[in-house]
Each structure stands twice: as structure tokens, then as C-alpha cells.
Specification:
Structural class: alpha/beta
Largest sheet: 9 strands, mixed
Strand content: 15-25%
Bound molecules: flavin-adenine dinucleotide
Mean pLDDT: 92
Number of helices: 12
Strand order of the largest sheet: 1-17-13-16-15-14-5-7-6
Shape: globular
Length: 484
């Protein structure tokens, strides 16, 4: 099994893409985007579409799509990156949250539209999203979630219940008791989207410099006291400064490495495995012909897709966080995590039990202290940023990119009125509290999942174990502030 090499997705494309040149010399630009993942690339792409006259540069420490954008599960999902209740505390209240949810649903189609318009062959298929329950407690949690969605106004067109039989007709997950289906989700090949999007941005005239780490972002400081001093914001690199009217931080799980942003976003680790292509007979047993994105309702949940070349790619948490906000080395994950994800593949899909795991990898996503993402721009300092999508950033980064483009261009729009614009989260605790908190949280979740899983031959599980599991899961949610 190959481990790391950034991701299966990049290796499936024949390895890393040819490297673009580094920043050749100090530059002046109108807009400097730091980070060549989906957020930075979508922002640059839309901005250049709106204002072709602007000089827009992207500075990327490795290569476009090196981060989560080239490693994720390939769910273009309309899920809200944060808590409805928290966003509803903003000035537009519940209406603002509903507007953001509607915007995220249409964003799934927008990603598909751009893929078609720009000839990005990213295996985009909008098959919907299924969350499956494999224990009575998970089923109860799904039903409670559905009732909550109904209270917030979601009808059958947004989310619907699947009986055990309906679930089985779509995807034959062993032990499935039911599921919920949301139509607003698509499957993609993540690295193909990143690579195609970078090329599309370049066609619009964006300059992308790779192998160019930004070591500091300095706000505009007209009085010269401690900032850039001449009316420009600055992105500092080993090859010189880029001075720009606007510098945008789009660095998600890597943000903690930047001075002044150490405790802004916690780099949460997520790991994935990909099986070898399954046989036709295995696919006949499993079904999954609708290519839905599939997750479960465990506390430490899994997410999966059927790839275009007939594999199962499945992810979950593994080691959730590295001390001091450290990130992985080229995506290598621990052998124990890869083995645990392989166990999930075999448990959920017995027809794939003999399939070899061909690749394992991991990456970091950005988690704000209140688990709510933000898009922010401050014209006075010339700085902005977007991110903190807590693991559902593939669609959200498109919406964020369009929004950040509007903010930088000074356009008020429906997007700039959404409740994540200008949202502020407090800083994470310093170490070692940060490490202990996240590891404690995931230990709780795993214990809760174990207690809720019925023992062999005991379909319902023991009520006392289940009650304890549920209580521990809720305790975890309360500690983390994970919202519902
Ligand atoms: C394993 C995994 C599975 C996931 N699955 C899903 C999923 O199925 N669906 C979903 O919606 N979301 C998923 N996510 C989350 C999703 O991938 C991210 O939310 C999204 O890709 C974020 O895009 P981004 O551009 O903000 O961040 P990234 O893609 O991480 O991009 C940030 C970029 O900035 C660069 N950078 C960082 N610091 C600097 C610096 N100082 N100087 C220059 N460049 C810098 C990095 O190299 C990187 O390329 C997953 C994440 C992971 C890790």
C-alpha cells in the first residue's frame, strides 16, 4: 500500500503536476492571494472575471492543490460549515442562515457549471448525499437530526428519510437500518478540480507562483508605525515582498504557521484510504449506481465515495491533531489509522472484504474555536481571509471565493450579506490545553461509538451501554461546541 505522496488523487493523475516557477522578484499587484487551494483559486478566478484589469497573483508554498483541496473525500456538499444557531445570532437572524443554506445548495450546481464551462474533467456527478445508520442509536440520531431540519424549514426536497429497504436499493451497507438523503451533493476527483481550476484562473490572467512560502502578512499601515508603511499590504516571501492593495489569507489548515495567526484555526487531521478497483460482482452486490456521497452517523464519522474508476475511497479521523498545530509530511498517515479505515470498508461492505487497500493519506482542515467559518475583508488594512470550513469546504470554498471577490471589488451583493461575512471566532487555547482538549474529545467520541455498537448477535445493543454512549457523545459535543 502506498502511504502519503500527498494523496491517491494526485497519484491517480500520474503524480504531482509540473511545478510553476517561484516568485521571480519583488512585485506590485492589486490583489495578492496567499494559498493555492480551492479558496485562493476560486477567489482569484472570480475576481479576475469581474475585474479583468486587476493584477491578481497567487502565492503557494508547494503547488496548487497541495493542501486539503487535493486530498479530500470529493464531496461537493451543501452542508453548512458551522452552527445554524450561532450564525442566527448575526443581524439577519434565522433569515440569514436560510439564505446561506440556499446559497450553499446552489453552489453545488455552480461548481458543476464551472467544471463544464472550463472543461475541467473532475468526474463531477450530482448523486446526492446519504447518511446511513447502522445501529438503533445512530438511527435515533438521524431521526432527531431530520426533525431538527424540519424545524428549520427543510422540506422533503432538501432532506428525506430512507427506509432500510430504500437504503439497500441504493447502497448495500451491511447492517444498515435506514438513512437520510439530501440531493444537494456531488462527487468529484478533488485533485482534478484543483488542477483544472488553477489552469482556468491562469486563462483569465491570474499569475500563480509555486514553491513560494509566505512568511508574514503585513497590513497596510499608512502612518508607517509597524506595518508596511506606504499604503500597501504586504505578503513577505524568501524571494521578496509582494505589495498589494489587498492581501488575502487562504491558508486553511496551515494558517497556524503564519505569525499572528497561531491560534486562529486548529489544523484537524483527516485520513483516507482507497481500495483497488472492485470487481463487477462486488459492485453488483454493493450497488451505489447513483454515485451518492456516503457518510455514517457515528460520533467519529466516516465519509466515502465510489470513484470514477470503481474504487471505494473512504475517510475518517484517525489521529485528530498533532501537538503545536504541526502538519503532516507529504500526507503520510499512521499505519494504525489506515488499518482502522480498512476495517470500516470491510465491515460496511463485506463484498469488498478481499479488496486490497492501494493507498492511504491524510491532510489538514481548518477548525475555528466556535466551528463556524468566516469570510472577512477589511479595506482599511487591505487584508482579508476566508476559511475554517471544519471539513465541509469543497462547496463552501467556492461560495467563500465568490464572496471574497465581491468584498475586495467593493460590490455589495446577496453574498456579502450572508452571516459568515465578518464572523469572528475566539482564539484556540494555548498548548498543551489545545492538544489535550482535542485528544480528549476524540477519545470520548470513540468510546461513545464503541458503546453504541451492538455486540455480535445483539441487534439492539444493551440499553445501559447505549445510554452511556449517547451521554458521552453529547458531552463531547458540549465540550467542543460542535453545533447542531
Ligand atoms: C482528508 C480530507 C478529506 C476532506 N473531505 C472533504 C469532503 O469530502 N468534502 C468537503 O466539503 N470538504 C472536505 N475536506 C475539507 C476540504 O478539503 C477543505 O475545506 C478545502 O479543500 C479547503 O480549501 P482551502 O483552499 O481553504 O485550503 P487548502 O486546500 O488546504 O489550501 C491552502 C493552501 O495554502 C497553501 N499555504 C498554506 N500556508 C501558506 C503560506 N504561508 N504561503 C504560501 N502558501 C501557503 C497550502 O500549501 C495549500 O495549498 C476534507 C479535508 C481533508 C484533509
Amino acid at each position: 500500500m502506498r502511504n502519503g505522496e500527498v494523496s491517491f488523487w494526485w497519484q491517480a493523475r500520474g503524480g504531482f503536476p509540473p511545478r510553476r516557477p517561484s516568485l521571480p522578484k519583488p512585485l506590485e499587484a492589486d490583489v495578492c492571494v496567499v494559498g493555492g487551494g480551492y479558496t485562493g483559486l476560486w477567489t482569484a478566478y472570480y475576481l479576475k472575471g469581474m475585474r479583468p484589469d486587476l493584477r491578481v497573483v497567487v502565492l503557494e508554498q508547494a503547488f496548487a492543490g497541495y493542501g486539503a483541496s487535493g486530498r479530500n473525500g470529493g464531496w461537493v456538499t451543501s452542508e453548512l460549515p458551522g452552527s445554524r444557531a450561532r450564525y442566527a445570532r448575526g443581524p439577519r437572524g434565522v433569515a440569514g442562515v436560510r439564505a446561506m443554506e440556499a446559497a450553499l445548495r446552489s453552489t453545488v450546481d455552480e461548481v458543476g457549471r464551472v467544471c463544464a464551462a472550463e472543461s475541467i474533467a473532475a468526474d463531477f456527478v450530482k448523486g446526492g448525499r446519504i447518511t446511513v445508520a447502522t445501529s438503533t442509536t445512530q438511527l435515533a440520531r438521524l431521526r432527531a437530526g431530520l426533525a431538527h431540519d424540519r424545524e428549520w424549514g427543510d422540506g422533503e426536497d432538501v432532506v428525506s428519510f430512507l427506509t432500510r429497504g430504500q437504503m439497500r436499493e441504493r447502497i448495500n451497507v451491511a447492517g444498515a437500518l435506514g438513512g437520510v438523503l439530501s440531493p444537494d451533493s456531488a462527487r468529484i476527483q478533488p485533485a482534478a478540480l484543483a488542477e483544472g481550476l488553477a489552469a482556468a484562473a491562469e486563462r483569465r490572467g491570474v499569475d500563480i507562483y509555486e514553491a513560494t512560502p509566505v512568511t508574514a502578512i503585513l497590513p497596510r499601515d499608512d502612518d508607517g508605525a509597524g506595518g508596511a508603511g506606504d499604503g500597501a499590504a504586504v505578503a513577505r516571501t524568501p524571494f521578496g515582498d509582494v505589495r498589494a492593495t489587498s492581501v488575502l489569507r487562504c491558508t486553511e489548515g496551515f494558517t497556524a504557521a503564519l505569525p499572528g495567526a497561531r491560534r486562529a484555526l486548529l489544523p484537524m487531521n483527516s485520513s483516507m484510504v482507497a481500495t483497488e478497483p472492485l470487481s463487477d460482482s462486488a459492485w453488483k452486490d454493493i450497488g451505489w449506481d447513483g454515485l451518492e456521497t456516503l457518510g455514517d452517523s457515528a460520533h467519529a464519522y466516516m465519509y466515502a465515495q465510489r470513484t470514477a474508476d470503481g474504487r471505494i475511497a473512504l475517510g475518517g479521523r484517525g489521529v485528530p491533531y498533532r501537538f503545536g498545530s504541526a502538519t503532516d509530511h507529504l500526507g503520510a498517515t499512521s499505519p494504525e489509522t489506515a488499518a482502522a479505515l480498512g476495517d470500516i470498508v470491510r465491515r460496511m461492505f463485506p463484498a469488498a472484504a478481499s479488496a486490497r487497500l492501494e493507498h492511504a493519506w491524510c491532510g489538514v482542515l481548518g477548525v475555528p474555536r466556535d466551528w463556524c467559518a468566516t469570510v472577512t475583508y477589511d479595506a482599511a488594512s487591505g487584508t482579508g481571509w476566508a476559511g475554517g470550513y471544519t471539513g465541509v469546504g469543497v462547496a463552501a470554498s467556492n461560495l467563500a471565493g465568490r464572496t471574497l471577490a465581491d468584498l475586495v471589488a467593493g460590490e455589495s451583493s446577496d453574498l456579502t450579506a450572508l452571516p459568515w461575512v465578518g464572523h469572528r471566532s475566539r482564539a484556540w487555547e494555548p498548548e498543551p490545553a489545545r492538544w489535550a482538549g482535542v485528544h480528549g474529545l476524540y477519545a470520548l467520541y470513540r468510546l461513545a461509538d464503541r458503546l453504541e455498537t451492538p455486540a455480535a448477535g445483539d441487534a439492539a445493543g444493551k440499553p445501559a451501554r447505549i445510554a452511556l454512549g449517547e451521554a458521552l457523545g453529547r458531552a463531547g459535543d458540549a465540550i467542543s461546541g460542535i453545533p447542531h
